[in-house]
Amino acid sequence: MNVLITGGAGFIGSHLTSALLQENRCNVTIIDMLHSYYDVNRKKERLKYLKSLRNFTYHQIDLLNEEKLSEVFKQNTFDIVIHLAALPGVAYSVEKPNEYVDYDIKATINVLKFAGESQVKHVIFASSSSVYGDQANEPLSEEMFNGKVVSPYAAAKVGAESFCHAFHHIYNYDVTVLRFFTVYGPWGRPDMAIPLFIKRLLDGESITVFDQNTARDYTYIDDIINGISLALDKGNGYKVYNLGNGNPVSMKQLLATMKSYFPAMSIIEKGWRTGDVTSTWANITKAQRELGYLPTVSFEEGLAKTIEWAKQYYTNKTYN
Ligand SMILES: NC(=O)c1ccc[n+]([C@@H]2O[C@H](COP(=O)([O-])OP(=O)(O)OC[C@H]3O[C@@H](n4cnc5c(N)ncnc54)[C@H](O)[C@@H]3O)[C@@H](O)[C@H]2O)c1
Question: What domain of life does the UniProt record list for this protein's source (predicted)?
């Protein structure tokens, strides 16, 4: 089986590539432009680690470059495309909304179009819990999507989901949309709360908290990778699934747990941040029922592993 992973040098993409290479399950090709949204060295280090595992093909290409992208599709026969590449981040999307039209919508259209023209059978698209907008504090099931999003990032993901449906209709390939709920773990994205807090606390600095009355359904990276792996050979028309943990953690709870690791922790409180939602909470019944998805890593266990990784990483920079 030949699989193309876009965004393979990213946080989720590199973990997925690592899992697929170690399982020896398929031939993997990665496309990643190494976007400078966050430290490019972290992306290069992930690729270096992946190269130490097993052979795979890597193209440093911007998905917006149609000519180069079409060459990759012409030179290969992919069975499955896992489209993870995007510009992530809610706060930056408020500052630079047009970039999200380019990297999250136009790049997705290019992938969907070339996948269709080259007879790909199944496209998996990385969407986000942010598409649910700021709904009441209750488990969000897939059908609770109502389009009332509160950030340009979320709007771009909604747009990209719609294009997924349109191109599924045009090309008749299976599309599985996976809505991830705040993912964390080793090699995490340095712009997200947990990695950001850990780095600052390891450096003895204060952390900035926007609002303590928020909650997130933090989902450990291994559970997300398991969810994507389960979806790989279950293409079946156009399907949408939540991949979350199903147990939201309040900001107060996160801070209390952080303090148990870093007793000297000091906090700078800021007000509400535009674009954020109050809480996220995944209803994972559908993914459980249809994919067999069952998250197994508790927040306490996942955070312990993430802190341990960060200590090693920032000390010797060679930890895998
Ligand atoms: N991490 C989370 O909590 C989370 C939650 C919900 C959804 N998602 C989605 O999951 C996907 C992966 O997220 P991540 O956290 O691994 O982000 P990431 O930024 O670590 O990975 C995305 C990768 O895509 C690459 N990329 C971006 N635009 C590109 C382009 N035009 N051409 C080629 N490469 C490009 C980047 O260089 C980056 O390495 C994204 O679509 C994101 O929106 C992530």
Answer: Bacteria
Region 233-251: mean pLDDT is 97
| C-alpha dist (Å) from residue 292 to 79, 170, 229, 297 | 22, 29, 11, 16
CATH fourth-level superfamily of 2-184+218-245+281-296: NAD(P)-binding Rossmann-like Domain (3.40.50.720)
CB of residue 42 inside a 6 A radius of ligand 1: no
pLDDT in the model for residue 316: 73
Percent of the chain with pLDDT over 70: 99
Closest-lying ligand 1 atom to the alpha carbon of residue 153: 43
Residues in the chain: 320
- Are 225 and 16 within 8 A, CB to CB? yes
Say yes or no: CB of residue 284 within 6 Å of ligand 1. Answer: no
Known catalytic residue: 293? Answer: no
Q: Which of 153, 184, 220, 313 is catalytic?
A: 153
